[in-house]
From TrEMBL:
Annotated GO biological process: threonine biosynthetic process
Presence of keyword Lyase: yes
Pathway named in the protein's UniProt entry: Amino-acid biosynthesis; L-threonine biosynthesis; L-threonine from L-aspartate: step 5/5
Highest taxon in the source lineage: Bacteria
Cofactor: pyridoxal 5'-phosphate
Family: Belongs to the threonine synthase family.
Name listed for the protein in its UniProt record: Threonine synthase
Class of enzymatic activity (EC top level): lyase
Sequence ranges assigned to domain Threonine synthase N-terminal in this UniProt record: 3-79
Residues annotated with N6-(pyridoxal phosphate)lysine modification: K107
Keyword terms: Amino-acid biosynthesis, Lyase, Pyridoxal phosphate, Threonine biosynthesis
Pfam families, per database record: PALP, Thr_synth_N
GO molecular function: pyridoxal phosphate binding; threonine synthase activity
Length: 436
């Protein structure tokens, strides 16, 4: 399977190149040159397959031999080694829990699969891969834990001092092995600027094999399709086959993967794009005008994106067929007050705690259901992170009810190891050169 750039479909590369480049030089995004349609036999019998079995079927159709099947199977079993259960809260409202991986966020699916794919492509004798990531919280944890112990790779994470939650910081700074954390005296934008400059620095690029493990990497998108198929499989087992997915969205990689699954044949009735005040896409779905804006800060900060990078992929999937797109996706956006209300309502109604991102997806689903009454549609909202990652988002009554996973309790006993650096490039570069 070749992958083309959304800016130039004639520019095609093999999977390996798409993975290591992350982004084509023309600043488009890589997309599969043709999207495979899965067989009806598989789609109608999804309920007979486990998550790793589904993942293997989907990935092998998409990669079309780029990785031999036995190796791909091994990569999947190693990467997708946790569950993604669909849990009923009330009829017909279900939650797809995507936070059972090591960093307690859905980004584990993408990061774990990508890390193993990259490692597989590094042939014997090749230079170690140096992954540089800037994070505002969730991405860094998923990438750090995704690459932890993966042969021939090393990860350097830059995070803004004092601006990530305690658990996020522990996930970044207590790994050791091939993971190191830099605590930058600056903002997330400063961290990102340092990483970007490193990629254009001649000396660093001669010395190291740098890669970004960026969230727009195609190897992060593909594994996110797995859990849509798997959620549908779980509902089929309960005799339900008309499903709406409500997805808390920022950069639109998560919902983009859902739409890719739909293109591969998953019969989803509708997608709901749920955002915070950064409402570029819901506004577009309402007005037909796509107008990126600078991002504003909110309580659901992993979705503070005013110009979602994966939108180019979604537009590409629909090839400017705007009516097909608006026919399949509804958009809703909520401010912080509404997010807090939703967290409280979910707690009062179901005695269940959702993180601020997830709360937005629940509220959008409820609003859609009120406007579209039906007795045969099942609504599923995606829970993108465990609420314990955002302890400051809750009143005491709710935070006391959060069941903290064992893995987090273990983290709390560990010592933070991070190198403190300023936001100047020279200091960052000197660190990289001195610590090879
Ligand atoms: C990254 C993230 C999102 C946004 O996902 P996109 O793929 O960027 O739309 C939502 N919730 C949480 C908790 C996240 O970490």
């Amino acid at each position: 399977m070749n992958f083309y750039s959304t800016n130039n479909t004639d520019h095609q590369v093999e999977f390996k190149e798409a993975v290591f480049n992350s982004m084509p030089q023309d600043k488009g995004l890589y997309m599969p040159a043709s999207i495979p349609k899965l067989s009806d036999k598989f789609l109608n019998n999804l309920d007979e397959y486990t998550l790793p079995e589904i993942a293997f079927k989907v990935a092998s159709a998409m990669l079309d031999g780029a990785i031999p099947e036995e190796d791909l199977k091994e990569i999947i079993h190693d990467a997708i080694n946790f569950l993604a259960p669909v849990v009923k809260l009330e009829e017909p409202v279900y939650v797809l829990e995507l936070f059972h991986g090591p960093s307690l966020a859905f980004k584990d699916f993408g990061a774990r699969f990508m890390s193993r794919v990259m490692s597989w492509f590094l042939s014997v004798g090749e230079k170690q891969l140096d992954v540089l990531v800037a994070t505002s919280g969730d991405t860094g944890g998923a990438v750090a834990l995704g690459f932890l112990g993966v042969p021939d790779t090393r990860v350097t994470i830059l995070y803004p001092k004092g601006k990530v939650s305690e658990i996020q910081e522990l996930q970044l700074t207590t790994n050791g092995q091939n993971i190191r954390a830099l605590e930058i005296d600056g903002t997330f934008d400063d961290c990102q600027a340092l990483v970007k400059q490193a990629f254009t620095d001649k000396e660093l690029n001669e010395k190291f094999r740098l890669t970004s493990a960026n969230s727009i990497n195609i190897a992060r998108l593909i594994p996110q399709t797995f859990y849509y198929f798997n959620a549908y499989a779980q509902l089929l087992r309960q005799g339900k086959n008309k499903v709406v997915f409500s997805v808390p969205s920022g950069n639109f990689g998560n919902i983009g993967a859902g739409l890719l699954a739909w293109k591969m044949g998953l019969p989803v009735h509708r997608f709901i794009a749920a955002t915070n005040a950064n409402d570029t896409v819901p506004a577009y779905l309402k007005t037909g005008i796509y107008e990126p804006k600078p991002s504003v800060q909110t309580l659901s900060n992993a979705m503070d994106v005013g110009n979602p990078s994966n939108w180019a992929r979604i537009a590409d999937l629909f090839k400017e067929d705007v009516s097909a797109l608006t026919g399949l996706i509804s958009g809703y956006s909520y401010d912080d007050e509404q997010t807090k209300e939703a967290i409280q309502q979910v707690f009062d109604k179901y005695n269940y705690v959702v993180c601020p991102h997830t709360a937005i997806a629940w509220k959008a689903l409820k609003e859609w259901e009120v406007a579209n009454p039906s007795n045969d549609i099942t609504g599923v909202f995606l829970s993108t992170a465990h609420p314990c990652k955002f302890p400051d988002a809750f009143p005491a009554e709710i935070s006391d009810a959060i069941v903290v996973p064992e893995s987090v309790k273990e983290l709390e006993g560990k010592e933070k190891q991070a190198v403190a650096l300023g936001k100047d490039f020279e200091g960052f570069k000197a660190f990289l050169l001195a610590n090879n």
